[in-house]
Design goal:
Strand content: 15-25%
Shape: globular
Number of helices: 10
Helix content: 40-55%
Radius of gyration: 35 Å
Number of strands: 12
Length: 357
Amino acid sequence: MDNTNQKKALINSEIALFLRGLIIGKVLTLIVIGGLLWWLLKPNLLSRNSVNSSNQSSNTVSSTASTFQTVADVPTASFNYGGSTAWASIRQLVDSQIQSDRPELQLRYVDPVNGSPGSSSGIRMLLDGKLDFAQSSRPLTDEEQAMAKERGFTLEQRQVGMDGIAVVVNPSLNVPGLTVEQLQQIYLGKITNWNQVGGPNLPITPLSQRPEDADTVIFPSNSDLKEQVLGSNVQYVYSTTEAVRQLSKTPGGIYYASARSVVPQCSVKALPLGSTSGKLIPPYSEPLVSPEQCPRQRNQLNTQAIKNGSYPIIANLFVIIKQNKGREQRIGDAYAKLLLTDQGQRAIEQAGLVAVR
């Protein structure tokens, strides 16, 4: 009996030992398999975590970026505005986005009744109460500020972008470029033949908008154009479109305007400009696209030279705001703030101009 009990106890002990070994073995197997699976899946998990972290970071950045939606105090009404033709791409591409995102704001572009559209005519219309704010590609003059003061308010200019002033000629004209001084001498009637600036023996035909309607300026803002009467050989045009059309038929013609407006044109050629003849900077990104390649390819604005100041004639883009504590001041202020948001500055660059932020 004792032997039988001893055998049973031994068998039970062996069974228990076997079962314990089996359990430990399975646990170890599961640990090994689990470890193997974790090792295999680890890159995917890390990648997924990295993507999630990146998305969270991206969401944080986008949530802090200023947009048209984040601008407060945008008035709900319809407003008239106008001015510089250099702003045409902003009116087409940026203002449409603003009105899509802020449908409570309606903007209506108004052409001048007398004179050609431009910075000068837009500011004049603002002074006369025909516009609620104006778009300009030149600074305010002392005369314009004095006129505003006479009427009981002041004008503020708020910069939102930059453009260059490009000089364009007939594509057949072979001339290396011009200095700013040579350009000014041409329009004052003191340089009258292209052979005086390294070109062919060909009379120069300068084209320009009238000074009172000028969209852009090539003389310093502190110069007195009343003293510097433009040359008698200057032919006045209504608009840049008319000037480009005339240049294509005038071998000795020359015109200056917003670089964004004229650099991509197929029928004219933009000239490099410089402070000195030894350092001429093109208003277009090199290499120059020939008329034969256009319109399949078009010349693009040299935004880098405009941004870093190496291009010699820059046109700063201003919102002109009537400071009268009324609806005009509210909309002018709101419009400038919209353009100075991160979204607005990106849109200005998409429109082919240079942002200021």
